[in-house]
Amino acid sequence: MFDIDELKANYPSGLEGFYNTAIIVGKLKYEGEIKEIQNSEFGHFKFLGVCEEE
After folding, report:
1. What would the pLDDT profile of 2-25 be if each residue is shown by its tens digit?
2. For residue 43, what is the DSSP state?
């Protein structure tokens, strides 16, 4: 289950921009090779991090 407090702990000063959508995918192993994508067709996507499952 996603814990918003863990995300807040990783970004104690808040995020640097406004985000209108967050996508949380459970049980996904991702090392974060690609951190950010700016694409004229699909827009702007940013990888924020991995939260450990309890």
Report:
1. 777 887 888 888 888 887 777 878
2. E
Residue 34 has pLDDT above 70, yes or no: yes
Which among 20, 36, 17 has a CA at the least distance from the CA of 48?
36
Residue for token digits 């990888």?
47
* Tokens at 35, concatenated: 């951190």
Supply the DSSP symbol for 33.
S
**Pairing of the two strands 36-39 and 43-46:** antiparallel
> What amino acid is encoded at 3 in this protein?
D
CB-based contacts of 47, cutoff 8 Å, min separation 6: 30, 32, 34, 35, 36
- In angstroms, the CA 43 to CA 23 distance is 15
